Every structure is written in C-alpha cells, then in structure tokens.
Amino acid sequence: MSGSDTLNRALFDDVMVPNYNPAAIIPVRGEGSRVWDQSGREFIDFAGGIAVNCLGHCHPALVKALNEQGNKLWHLSNVMTNEPALQLAKTLVDSTFAERVYFANSGAEANEAALKLARRYALEHHGEEKDQIIAFTQGFHGRTFFTVSVGGQPAYSDGFGPKPGGIDHLAYNDIEGFKALISDRTCAVMLEPIQGEGGIVPADAEFLRQVRELCDQHNALLIFDEVQTGVGRTGKLYAYEHYGIAPDILTTAKALGGGFPIAAMLTTAKVAASLKVGTHGSTYGGNPLACAVANAVLDVVNTDAVLNGVAQREAQLRAGLEAINAKFDVFSEVRGKGLLMGAVLNEQYKGKARDFLVASVDEGLMCLVAGANVVRFTPSLVIPEADLAEGLARFERAVAKVVNG
C-alpha cells in the first residue's frame, strides 16, 4: 500500500503535538461496522469514532449526499444562507422541542454557544448579577476554555491560568445538593442526560424532573448537552424524549454528521432572540457540505426502523456482556441506554479499563474507555446482528486474556 511504509505510528511522534497517544495500527478503510488497517487486518468497530459514526463507515446514503453536494457548493459565508442549512434547521425544529437553530462545527463549539447565549439571555432579562452556571462533577462539555471549565473534571481545565468565574459544580443525581445550590442568581444549569466521558452514568428520571422544575422556579435556563446521547444513540432522536421534559437549550454534534464535522445548538424563539446580529458566529458553521451530509443522516436515523432497532441491538449487546461476565466476573454492572453502554469494572479490575481496550485491539475489536474503570461501547446504530455477535466473541477473548494475565 503506497505510503504505508513511511506514514506509520513513529511519524506521529515526529510531526504531531503529543497530546494524543494513538494505537500502533492505522486504519485506512472502513465499510459498515468493519475497518481495515494498513496491513489489511480487519477490525469490528464497537467504538464508532466515539459515538460519531452512527451509520457505520461509508454508508451509501452519506457517500451519495457528500458526492452530490461536493459537486455543487462547499462554502459561502454567513453573509448568505444555503439550502442544505435551511433544510437541516427545518428538520431539527420539526423533530424536537426547538424553534431556532445555530450551526457550528463541534460539540465544544455548540456548548460554547449555549453558555454564551444563557449568559446573554440572563443579562438582558434579569441583570448582570444573574450569572451563576451550575454543572456537575465528572461532566464533560468540550475543550474550549469556557466549556472545559464548566465540565466537572478539573484535570482537563487545570494548568491554563485563571478560569472563567461564576461556575459551580456538584455531584450528578444529587437533588438535595442541587436544591441547596440553585438560586435566583443561577442563569443556567448544564448537564448530560447520560454522562459520557464521566463513566456512562444515566440521570435519574426524578432528578431531571426536579431540576427542570427548579430551573423554572428560579428563571434559570436548562441546557442539555446531547453531543454524545443525541441522534438516535439512546433509541430516541434525542435522549430528553425519554424523560417527559424538555430543556431550554440542547446541543448536538458527533453523530449529527455521521463522521463529517457539524454541530448545532437548538433553542426556543424567546431564548434565541438574545443572540442578536453580531453577538456570535462561526466561519464554517452551517456550511453546505456538512449540512447536506447531516440531512442524509437524519433521513436515515430519524425513522422507526432505525430507532426501534437500537433497542434490539442494546438487548443483544447487554446480554452478550452479561454472559461474558457470568464466565469471568470482571464487571460490577453494565449500564447505559441504547447503544451508549458502559461495562463497569469490579474491585478486582479497578483502574484497568485500558488493559481491556488494548487486549480488544489485539483480538480485532475497537472499543473505548470512559475513565479508568469503565469499558465503553458506542457501535453503529445499524450494526448487523452478525457483526455484533462476532464483536462480542472477540471481546470475550480479550477479557479472557486480561483475566489470565
């Protein structure tokens, strides 16, 4: 294969900033839920690019949309709008609680926009003393300085100088602590309906219901970060639909483009009014190429066939992991919703999630971790039953390797 001799893992260390430590294998081709590396070795993909490749690799509908739009129009600027962006915004508005949409390129950017909007809205409607943002420990909202400060993992935000102020954190699902913290000074509450990077921790339905109620009482905006849970991942288009409540602002990215970078912030007309002309922007946000692909993603994902299929695949994945655990006794629980699943390591294997990931790669399976104690699985929403079964068989061999040293 041309270039593969020189384009290797060693080159990474010579030319890339060292903030990542990628695997030795370099994938060059993908189809459906399978990926091939430079030497032609095949892997089953239970990682999905971290919940991004919601329709697997090179899905025909997405390839078609990309090719068609690629021959028409790639980029204008926000001095003009474009047809794919208008169509995507209309679909999102028609499919959710939202009335207005803002496009960006990544989850962090959508969250940055959400936080800026919340602060702006509070300032316009209630005055500058209403500035508190409440978020949760182990939460993750991106890597810009504002979003990483709102995220509840100090390891990611420490070491860059003074942080933005007015941000308070408390334990996820702690309703008593939340009641004590929220006040009329609170401008926004930001949370993931299922904490992703924090270990695949679902919210209690009652907790969310009371958070929504308290936000209303104190005129605080509720922001749902659905970057990882959105676009069918939990078996609904967006996870908030499971809980019978709606946020004021929702952010979506990752799976929205099925692998093409795009993000969106969704909100109501009343809240959106605070982002007046000139208050925020994005050079590439809403570009025709990204929006055309996202339109194709939603055409496929937002259907009963795919959304109902998520629950069936969840059942197969869960049963497979429980069967592996019955043999090897490595997990204390399997948690999550839909195809956002976490296998939590028990006391004996605490801190060893990466060992399971490395062993999986050796067995031809791509999976993820969520912290040191959770093995994370976010396969394609349309992964064939046979690929799911084969992936589980490979994972079982990986678990056996770790257990047997």
TrEMBL record:
Catalytic function, reaction form: N(2)-acetyl-L-ornithine + 2-oxoglutarate = N-acetyl-L-glutamate 5-semialdehyde + L-glutamate
SUPFAM superfamilies on file: PLP-dependent transferases (SSF53383)
Residues involved in N(2)-acetyl-L-ornithine binding: R143, S282
Cofactor: pyridoxal 5'-phosphate
GO molecular function: identical protein binding; N2-acetyl-L-ornithine:2-oxoglutarate 5-aminotransferase activity; pyridoxal phosphate binding
Residues binding pyridoxal 5'-phosphate, per UniProt: G107, A108, F140, D225, E226, V227, Q228, T283
Pathway linked to the protein: Amino-acid biosynthesis; L-arginine biosynthesis; N(2)-acetyl-L-ornithine from L-glutamate: step 4/4
Subunit: Homodimer.
Family classification: Belongs to the class-III pyridoxal-phosphate-dependent aminotransferase family. ArgD subfamily.
Other facts noted in the record for this chain: May also have succinyldiaminopimelate aminotransferase activity, thus carrying out the corresponding step in lysine biosynthesis.
Protein name: Acetylornithine aminotransferase
Lineage, opening ranks: Bacteria, Pseudomonadati, Pseudomonadota, Gammaproteobacteria, Alteromonadales
Name of the gene encoding the protein in the UniProt record: argD
